[in-house]
Amino acid sequence: MDVAELVHTRTHHPEAIAEAALRRARRPLLNENGRLMIVAADHPARGALGVGDRKLAMANRADLLERLCLALSRPGVDGVLATADILDDLLLLGALDHKVVMGSMNRGGLQGASFELDDRFTGHRPEDIQRLGFDAGKLLLRIDYDDPGSLTTLESTARAIDAMAAHRLPVFVEPFISRRGPDGRVRNDLSAEAVTKSIAIASGLGGSSAYTWLKVPVTDNPDDMAQVMETSTLPAVLLGGDIGDSPEEQVAAYEKWRGALQLPTVRGLVVGRSLLYPADGDVAAAVDTAVGLL
């Protein structure tokens, strides 16, 4: 990874990013198998740099880019979800040809901030995604019934869904019911009831659901997923989340995903940290295992 070359291009030829986007070879959102395997790397822009006990695991940009390029090179990986800074680097590196590219849209809910649940849209706009020839957008929707900031996020999410539908661009909505603990930290409720409610709320946002996908977690009890996913007919992908820092926790996550991937509305996986920073350090093996679940 030649960071100096990336910086030189950004300094002397910033237009190279738009040029790379224009000539990027595109593909349909879904291939013939109708499934999606997306690697996620939009965490840093929200200040969420940790993986398990490693608080700054994602802070080294060259290391992250190397891991992303390796993951994108593996058979069966369809594409990447990231913010503009990372996607711009990947464009300059030529790593996005024939890949699905998802722009991350709202990163204003910084991890640990008092305004974390007022998650404003500070990333890709729908017009950016269209202009750059990207394939979809993704947004995070955390709802805390005790935090007025969630209402701002709900309203802005609905308008973003409307704008994406107007551009005929898919938007992946990642909903949670969230609460602050006694320590002030926001935690997502993965009980069957909470995930069911979050899916119902997200599915009804905006003036059209024609281009809306869901990005959902596996519930605390994986056996609840079949009933939970009956809440909506929208297509869905599973998210990975921070599954822990041990090989045993990684294997347990694979088994959770395996069962949920059999459900009729679930079309694939969008996983980031657990594949890019696996406990044993073997990115290729972690990605190949996840692809094998599809």
Automatic annotation (TrEMBL):
Ranges for domain Cgl0159-like: 34-291
Cited InterPro entries: Aldolase_TIM, Cgl0159_dom
Superkingdom classification of source: Bacteria
A Pfam entry, by short name: Cgl0159
Signal sequence segment: none
Protein name, UniProt field: Deoxyribose-phosphate aldolase
Organism: Streptomyces cellostaticus
